[in-house]
Specification:
The longest helix is centred in the last third of the chain and has 29 residues. This protein has a single domain, classed as Alpha-Beta Complex (Aminoglycoside 3'-phosphotransferase, Chain: A, domain 2), CATH 3.90.1200.10. A 5-stranded antiparallel beta sheet has the order 1-2-3-5-4, with helices on one face. The model has no long low-confidence stretch (mean pLDDT about 95). About 40% of the residues are buried. It is built from 13 helices and 11 strands.
Length: about 375
């Protein structure tokens, strides 16, 4: 137990008038954040978020070169927020200002990496579907969140309550370093030999146009981790506000397809091709300025990139670190990747995977 950290948390809660709350530790994920539910004397609850500032590598400053970002580490290269409380509170304010259901911020200390948030409950899409709620209405509402978010261009800087955070672009480098984690981690997990320089060069050449299109199309506010375990159902609210939003601190300006790849090819639950098609149709009907064929191609290509990133950085890496539960999600993610690679425009990438990652290594 870190007594200094515990003392700082106790001081923060006292300053916020919450020192008498009963504290309930909540289950965590693979991040460095921790959450508690605070039960207040009157019976209401709030969420206490603890993100130790020193637990992550440096974030990307605006204007950093690609070389500088690579030297700073993965968070800077991939433009991740490293759990920044400034990123969280400013993004939450932006989402609420646009009529969406991000939690209200009760109190925060950016330097300490602490915040108290509105408790939006436990009604995660992932736990409600299909036993409690049918999936189609929830997915329709989630797509409507995307439509609403993309109605106007986002600002360069998010601001609220004395805090500011740059909204950077999910650019070609960020896409590349994420996708390239497949090269690093999948051979270690699956027992494949390390990929040769020639194989890596071929990979780079095949993915380059995908990253270029993702970069060129990066024009809308993007949650970045928009899937059923980060979405809450709030049926007493109206319209797109019925979807509660979590884990949005890594938001960027990105291609309009990016969040849809997470939602409709969810690594942790099956999304049928029929539901995927229906939701893409719903989205495109509301965004007539997007050319359908080009958008679908970009969606498939970026979804393939995302699947490779998840298989490498998230699942294989975590499994090798001893979190074997992630192995259960791998076959589904491979199915999504293989579905995307049937796009004729991705034939070169399909051939690369067929040559270098045989069926027995896709598990």
């Amino acid at each position: 137990m870190n007594s200094d950290r515990d003392g700082r948390k106790a001081e923060f809660l006292k300053a916020a008038g919450l020192e008498h709350a009963r504290r309930e530790l909540l289950a965590g994920d693979a991040s460095t954040r921790a959450y508690e539910r605070l039960h207040l004397p009157g019976g209401s609850t709030v969420i206490f978020m603890d993100q130790p500032p020193a637990a992550e590598s440096a974030v990307c400053p605006p204007g950093a070169t690609n070389a500088e970002r690579m030297a700073m580490g993965y968070n800077a290269a991939a433009r991740l927020a490293a759990g920044s409380v400034a990123a969280f509170v400013t993004t939450a304010a932006y989402l609420r200002d646009h009529g969406l259901s991000a939690p209200q911020i009760v109190a925060h200390d950016i330097e300490a990496g602490l915040a108290v948030l509105e408790d939006l409950g436990d009604g995660l899409f992932a736990t409600l579907i299909p036993e409690v709620e049918p999936e189609a209405p929830l997915y329709e509402a989630a797509v409507d969140v995307q439509i609403q978010l993309q109605e106007q261009a986002p600002p360069d800087v998010l601001k609220t309550d004395g805090a500011a955070w740059p909204l950077l672009t999910y650019d070609a480098l960020a896409l590349k370093v994420g996708t390239d984690t497949f090269l690093e981690w999948w051979p270690k997990f699956s027992g494949l030999a390390e990929f040769t320089p020639e194989t890596v060069a071929e990979w780079d050449a095949l993915w380059a146009p995908v990253f270029a299109r993702g970069d060129a199309g990066a024009a809308v506010f993007t949650h970045r981790d928009f899937h059923a375990q980060n979405l809450l159902w709030l049926p007493k609210r109206a319209g797109a506000a019925r979807v509660g939003l979590l884990d949005f601190q890594d938001a960027l300006r990105a291609h309009p397809a990016w969040d849809l790849t997470h939602l409709l090819q969810d690594a942790r639950r099956d999304v049928s091709p029929e539901l995927e098609t229906a939701m893409l149709d719903r989205f495109l009907a509301a965004r007539p300025g997007l050319e359908r064929e080009a958008f679908i191609h970009d969606y498939r290509a970026l979804a393939a990139s995302n699947a490779a990133r998840i298989l490498g950085r998230v699942f294989a890496r975590q499994a090798l670190l001893g979190r074997r539960q992630y192995e259960a999600f791998m076959p589904r993610t491979w199915r999504y990747l293989e579905r995307n690679l049937t796009d004729p425009a991705l034939a070169g990438l399909k051939a690369w995977f067929d040559r270098h990652v045989p069926a027995q290594a896709r598990r």
